[in-house]
Amino acid sequence: MTRVTISTVDGIADVRLTRGDRMNAIDLEMFDALIDAIDTLRDSSMRCVVLSGEGRAFCAGLDMASMAAGAAGIDLATRSHGIANRVQQVAWGWRTLPMPVIAAVHGLAFGGGMQIMAGADIQIAAPDTRFSILEAKWGLVADMAGFALWRDVRSDLLRELAFSAREFTAEEAVRAGFVTRLADDPHGAAIVLARAIAARSPDAARAAKRMANLADEADAATILAAESAEQQALLGKPNQVEAVRAGMERRAPSFQD
Asked: Which family does it belong to (predicted)?
């Protein structure tokens, strides 16, 4: 059974978790499908990605029943995907894609679902979505890149949620920094935003993502030098010239991928 689908239109990849009958709970097949989707998109010409889940929830976290038999054999030590292991790649991989990624979240985002959501650059959630760093309930720690992706969350609040597995609301998720904003139709709102991003120069969007990723971890001197290098690479190139011409001529730009 297919765990993840990708449909594309107008430079936007619409990625959906399709295990809706199990609230998109993550089993071994879902791990493989998510990594395959990330690998497929990495070398594509897509300008933006929208990530969502079918059915009643974005993702309810690990499918503990199906994982129980095979989890002991998972190698967590090997860095199989750059700095990440296989388990971490299903969340971290979205952050490393060259194009912006928007997560459209509804229903539940528990455990691994919260971490997959965190891998996106932007998170849009339905107002009634419920969240939990659920691993503590199972005697585990969040290990799908969550702590590397939650750097904007206030430390004491993150600790409380990671220690307790307490459920919290979408409003609290926004205040804490887990979620960007709320929308009654998060997938629709994500598509609208994706279209706006796709209408801009893909060179500029990818450069901005590289800068945002770098700013999460680098010192000021490194960031300033990278800003200059990225800008130098954009100036005078066909897409940058087209952006200026289209603006001055008051028409929609036509960018090259």
From this structure: Belongs to the enoyl-CoA hydratase/isomerase family.
Taking each helix axis from N to C terminus, what angle separates 220-234 and 202-215, rounded to the nearest 10 degrees?
A: 170
What local confidence, expressed as pLDDT, does residue 66 receive?
A: 73
C-alpha–C-alpha distance, residues 62 and 113, integer Å: 8
Task: Tell me which of 16 and 78 has the higher pLDDT.
Answer: 16
DSSP H helix total and E strand total for the chain: 11, 9
Segment (H or E) for 185: none
Q: What percent of the chain has pLDDT over 90?
A: 91
Contact 147, 91 (CB under 8 A): no
Are 55 and 162 in a shared domain? yes
Q: How confident is the model at residue 211 (pLDDT cuts 50, 70, 90)?
A: very high
| Residue 50 and residue 30 in one domain | yes
For 115-128, write each residue's pLDDT tens digit. Answer: 999 999 999 999 99
Report the distance separating Cα 239 and Cα 202, nearest Å: 8
- For residue 256, tell me if it sits in a domain: no
Helices 202-215 and 238-249 pack at an angle, to 10 degrees, of: 110
Burial class from Cβ neighbours inside 10 Å (0-12, 13-18, 19+) for residue 59 reads buried
Measured between alpha carbons, how far is 108 from 186 in angstroms, rounded to an integer?
13
Q: Are residues 93 and 21 in the same domain?
A: yes
pLDDT in tens, 192-210: 999 999 999 999 999 999 9
Q: Is the pTM value of this prediction over 0.90?
A: yes
Q: How do strand 122-125 and strand 101-105 relate by DSSP bridges?
A: parallel
